[in-house]
Design a protein that fits this description.
With 347 residues, this protein is an alpha+beta fold. Helices cover 17% and strands 24% of the residues. Bound molecules: calcium ion (CA) (4 copies).
């Protein structure tokens, strides 16, 4: 007798029905975990590495941790790092989106590159969803990092310049190594990360992404807080960038590289990331717009209603819930009859 049928026998019909109902609820609510959410502020920020102009803006505490490399993915194991709770704040005005990330960690800055090594300094990335299906692991989902589900936009910042210096913001064209190594990139999975402007369809990529950083300590290894302050135009026109509109949504993920990961600094796979928590769904200020990019932003468990006719928004979800309810009843009846058959046979 299988363990499943013996479980049925010992559990009784009530438990079987309860399990079936739980299954129905699981189907109804989806299996994805809840995303994080944040309201962006309406503000104009000066990108100078000084967070004083964010003081009145509410942030979100985001836990960053090393991910578990999925089975079958042949990547080098990183040096272990403890998780860290960082603060994310987002603001927009009529022209730009602004992002602030504050990381409580000791000061590690190797100096200006070249000749120094940015893997011995902290590094940061902010990622935005472009394609609606893209997963938070650089376009991939939780279970298979080698299978891209869509494109994400990545601001990738290795600290090649001193605190307070303006990184990026200058050279257009390629997203690769503009001022101070603040790269405008995109990815479809962790192994397919590219600089904006490399594809034939991306003519004249807009890469004016800019940032400035600071730390509360100037002594190597001393505890304190990093401030990473960034901005970019809401609209860049690049297919390799997320495009933002007032009243729309930005789906964000964060990554932080700690130079304390190993004797030679951080490694590619050792970063602390928010990806295991899903996307950080960030509501941008302004009137709600149906044309908000990127893509539909239905939360887990909700049912997109965009397929219905005008004025018929409830139709799809109602129909689907009816199917789920009928399916659930069938499961209950099916499991109940299975229980009775098992019981009759073993009596
Ligand atoms: Ca500032
Ligand atoms: Ca550290
Ligand atoms: Ca990009
Ligand atoms: Ca770009």
């Amino acid at each position: 007798m299988s363990s499943w049928t013996s479980t049925l026998r010992s559990a009784g019909l009530g438990a079987v029905i309860a399990a079936a109902l739980a299954l129905v609820l699981m189907v109804g609510s989806g299996t994805a975990q809840a995303d994080l959410s944040l309201d962006a502020a309406d503000a104009t920020i000066t990108v100078d590495g000084n967070s004083a102009d964010w003081a009145a803006i509410t942030g979100l505490t985001v836990n960053l941790k090393q991910f578990e490399i999925p089975a079958g993915v042949d990547w080098d194991a990183p040096g272990p790092l403890d998780p860290v709770d960082v603060t994310l704040k987002v603001a927009t005005d009529d022209t730009n989106i602004y992002v602030l990330v504050e990381v409580p960690d000791d000061y590690d800055f190797d100096g200006v590159v070249p000749p120094n090594d940015h893997k011995m300094s902290a590094a940061l990335a902010v990622q935005f969803l472009i394609d609606a299906a893209a997963g938070p692991h650089m376009g991939s989902g939780d279970s298979d990092f080698e299978a891209g589900l869509g494109m994400v936009d990545i601001w990738h910042w290795e600290l090649d310049c001193a605190a307070g210096a303006m990184s990026g913001g200058g050279d257009a064209g390629s997203g690769n190594y503009p001022d101070c190594n603040m790269d405008d990139e995109y990815a479809t999975d962790p192994e397919t990360r590219e600089d904006d402007g490399k594809t034939a369809s991306a003519s004249g990529a807009e890469n004016s992404l800019a940032g400035s950083w600071s730390h509360t300590s100037a002594t190597i290894g001393e505890a304190g807080t990093w401030t990473f302050e960034m901005s970019r135009p809401l609209q860049t026109g690049d297919i390799e960038d997320a495009q933002f509109v007032a009243g729309g949504t930005a789906k964000i993920a964060l990554a932080y590289w700690d130079a304390d990961e190993g004797l030679t600094g951080w490694t590619d796979t050792g970063h602390l990331t928010s990806a295991d928590s899903g996307w950080i769904v960030t509501s941008l200020p302004g009137a709600a717009q149906d044309t908000a990019t990127p893509g539909p932003t239905a939360s887990p468990g909700s049912v997109p209603t965009t397929g219905g006719a005008p004025g018929d928004d409830g139709g799809v979800s109602t129909a689907l819930m009816l199917v789920l309810a009928l399916g659930g009843a069938a499961v209950v009846v099916g499991l109940g009859s299975l229980y009775l058959r098992v019981r009759a046979r073993s009596a």
